[in-house]
Amino acid sequence: MANQETEISKLGEFGLISHLTKDIKFNNSSTVVGVGDDAAVLDLKDGATLVTTDLLLEGIHFDLRYVPLKHLGYKSAVVNFSDIYAMNGRPRQITVSLGVSSRFTVEHIEELYAGIRKACEIYEVDLVGGDTSASVTGLVISITCIGVADKEKIVLRSGAKPTDLICVSGDLGAAYMGLQLLERENQVAAKAAPDFQPDFAGKEYILERQLKPEARKDIIELLAAEGIIPTSMMDVSDGLSSELLHICKSSDVGCRVFEDRIPIDYQTAVMAEELNMNVVMTAMNGGEDYELLFTVPLADKEKIEKIKGISMIGYITKPELGAAMVTRDGAEIELKAQGWNAF
Amino acid sequence: MANQETEISKLGEFGLISHLTKDIKFNNSSTVVGVGDDAAVLDLKDGATLVTTDLLLEGIHFDLRYVPLKHLGYKSAVVNFSDIYAMNGRPRQITVSLGVSSRFTVEHIEELYAGIRKACEIYEVDLVGGDTSASVTGLVISITCIGVADKEKIVLRSGAKPTDLICVSGDLGAAYMGLQLLERENQVAAKAAPDFQPDFAGKEYILERQLKPEARKDIIELLAAEGIIPTSMMDVSDGLSSELLHICKSSDVGCRVFEDRIPIDYQTAVMAEELNMNVVMTAMNGGEDYELLFTVPLADKEKIEKIKGISMIGYITKPELGAAMVTRDGAEIELKAQGWNAF
Questions:
Q1: Which of A39, A322, B14, B59 is deepest in the core (most CB within 10 A)?
Q2: ipTM for the complex?
């Protein structure tokens, strides 16, 4: 611990919470009372309320050897915002619970909180409450996000219909390749001289996609501007294959996506090449992209084409046709679910 | 692992979630969409919205050697409801995030969930979402509760005024004495013959207060029936001393509570005696009582006296008088904050 760092025991639980939250300003008029009472008070009369929650555990979801705490805080908040956008809503408030072990100092937790607050600032979300606790094991971050939506414009996973177009924003697989890069450099560093510096030149994009992902607020706004309400929508957190299967199951439909339509960035392709990995499989199963996957009626095709950064990757079918990817040579590969299986 | 138990890897993440949540029924008309999409959808137009969150970590907040998983689930939910009642609100929805390590089976998590669902049933709350994750360390439970309240009847910690009466529901220290009992019997069991059975006869009350606490919904309803809106309120989770100091700080007031007015159950007193502990200190600092601590204007004294199960334990003073307990012999002992300090 560096000299200027402060042990958390100096502040104690209540001291730490008030230290971290003392100068929080609200972005939303619906936020009435924030941190500091038994519960936050919100006034959400302007539409339906959305709630989502994510639990991030050290050793499972992040590795502090190569994830800076500020980035981790930012990402922890953004992944929740992404779930709210995926309902066609706007995030408004979050609560943050932290479990912190004794190897962390006040400055460490400040860094983490700085990232969370930065994300709140950029996405105009209010931090309204939380819980801070000691942990005998690793760092635990649990964030719950409250959002609002026009009730008649909420988009579930269950509304996709045969012939609907399948669309995805941005590109896929970059975050996963960023993680592979970080793990490779970390292994090299472990064996190298103390002054070793990892070389990320030409790989900044995939690194940023892994360390500091963004939620696609812009896409939600562009769709609204074009008057498009998707028939179904999800964010891509576990991987495109897995999310497509969720939509097919919830909507009781099948799907076909085309290998040559999957959007992949140049840096993702280069990294996959270096690691001798199949880049399309990376994009299908990588996860953590936080892009939006959605379906629209065929009639919206021209409107979608007008929006930059959206790819039409396939179409919805009747359920009996199943879910498959059509390869460049016309073969069909059945999609498989991933999800964790760390047990 | 017994023969009939199921490894979690058999179901996987998505399988486990849908297995646990498949037959959930809603109690509240404000619950529109529950588990199974990116976010839950709530329609909360009937008042202000309350949000509270609690993080429970194995080894810090609970010890699975003597806490049955079903009780743990029940308690995890109830402590959140308690925070909503402490705002003079009604809990409506919860989200549940679990981090589960490989030593747990599907049946274990079912037990935990059964307790959570039992609490939801009794308090008429809907389980609307959550996250389930592998954990490389212990069990992690993060619950967020959404509630509603009439905006003009919300009770914060900050409204106590000099001369207000300080009231507390039920009795204090029992949950802490229940924990001491469990720890003692566990230590005895570790050294005893395999057929050892802990002896809890005559101590059922303190055991239940520790293992299966209830939130004081009844008190909130009784206060409303008498037309009483407290000037400040909190639930007693960290201990009476600590909560009194929170109210004094938030309201910028002082307080006097009287040692001989602190409500203590007979079993609590007997257990303290057995363990050679000061029973009043136990009641002041024990924590986990989940009773309601609140202040009312002096003019409400007669109405309060009509409600069974509420004790008037002192009064609010000007801030310069500080926060103190008046002992039986008239001496004043300054109140001290507790909170965790596991660092």
A1: A39
A2: 0.87
Q: In terms of C-beta density within 10 A (0-12 exposed, 13-18 middle, 19 or more buried), how is residue B5 classed?
A: exposed
pTM assigned to the model: 0.91
Task: Name the residue of chain B whose CA is nearest to A292's CA.
Answer: B38
Contact between A49 and B60 using a beta-carbon 8 Å cutoff = no
Tokens of A254: 């099948």
Using DSSP bridges, classify how beta strands A323-326 and A254-258 pair: parallel, antiparallel or unpaired: parallel
State whether B128 and A157 contact (CB < 8 Å): no
Task: Tell me the HSE value of B307 on the side-chain side, using a 13 A CA sphere.
Answer: 23
What is the DSSP annotation of B150-171? -GGG---SS---TTPEEEEES-
Do residue B51 and residue A40 have CB atoms under 8 angstroms apart? yes
Q: Could you read off the pLDDT tens digit of each residue along chain A, which spans 343 residues?
A: 455 788 877 777 667 777 878 877 888 888 888 887 888 888 887 788 999 999 999 988 899 888 999 999 999 999 999 999 999 999 999 999 999 988 888 899 999 999 999 999 999 999 998 888 888 878 999 999 999 999 899 999 999 999 999 999 999 999 999 999 999 888 888 888 777 777 788 999 999 999 999 999 999 999 999 999 999 999 999 899 999 999 999 999 999 999 999 999 999 999 999 999 999 999 999 889 999 999 999 999 999 999 999 999 999 999 999 999 999 999 999 998 654 443 3
Asked if A140 and B99 come within 8 Å (Cβ–Cβ), the reply is yes
Chain A contacts of B89, Cβ < 8 Å?
39
B134: nearest CB among A39, A128, A342? A342
